Amino acid sequence: MSRTGTALLRGLREPAPPLPERCAFCGAGLAPGHRHLADTAERALVCACGACALLFQQPGAAGGRYRAVPDRCLTDPGREPGEGVWAALGIPVSTAFLLVNSAAGGPVLCYPGPAGATESELAETAWRSAFGDSRLAAALEPDVEALLMRRTREGVRCFLVPVDLCYELVGRMRLYWRGFDGGAEAHAELDSFFTALESRARPLPEEALT
């Protein structure tokens, strides 16, 4: 076989390069770290350029269907959820996130795992019992932010984060998860994710509650 034929066969065996991501509204090419919008009707995230994301930050844009995902990451030092909250919610894994979903009509509890995000609707009474006095929960924006929690030997840590950050974590766990408990690589990836989040997060400002 000629060199040209060999190169052609090699090219056919290799996966095609991924298509560049584009804005769902204007079609502009997107760089890594681009903005996302929450499609409240479809319960999905869509990619957007900076200009389109800015348009949807205006009150009432598109009838409120699309909401721009903010970029704040917040903690509330000294007010972390206790072990009682973890037990009351019946969370079976070390990491979970909660969001208030407009389409579902209430809070939703999600666990990242090898198959993606496992969802379960949370009773309003359980939500109020667990987070009724939580300042982070009071500051939470429906559909676009989540409370991301991780339980370790040191206790439970809770962050208010953009919802797309939670689904980034879900994607990482799907990629690295091995076996029953995830394996060493998935646990190392989880540690790395939360180390970066700790550096990024800032204490909850008082004005966030007004």
Keywords:
single chain; 210 residues; alpha+beta; 2 domains; 5-stranded antiparallel beta sheet; 3-stranded antiparallel beta sheet; 7 helices; 26% strand; globular
Instruction: Provide the β-strand percentage band.
Output: 25-35%
Total number of strands:
10
> Average pLDDT across residues?
84
Strand order of the largest sheet: 7-6-5-8-9
The low-confidence parts are none
The general outline is globular
How does this structure look, described?
The mean pLDDT is 84. This protein has 210 residues and is an alpha+beta fold. The protein folds into two domains: 10-68, no CATH class; 74-209, no CATH class. The N and C termini lie far apart (73 Å). The longest helix has 18 residues, at 183-200. It has helices at residues 3-13, 50-55, 83-89, 124-131, 135-139, 163-176, 183-200; strands spanning 35-39, 44-48, 66-68, 74-75, 95-101, 106-113, 116-121, 145-152, 155-162, 202-203. Helix 3 runs antiparallel to helix 4 and helix 6 (163-176) runs antiparallel to helix 7. The strands form three sheets. The chain has a five-stranded antiparallel sheet. It is built from seven helices and ten strands.
Question: Any chance you could write out the topology, listing elements then pairs?
Answer:
Elements: H1 3-13, E1 35-39, E2 44-48, H2 50-55, E3 66-68, E4 74-75, H3 83-89, E5 95-101, E6 106-113, E7 116-121, H4 124-131, H5 135-139, E8 145-152, E9 155-162, H6 163-176, H7 183-200, E10 202-203
Helix pairs in contact: 3-4, 6-7
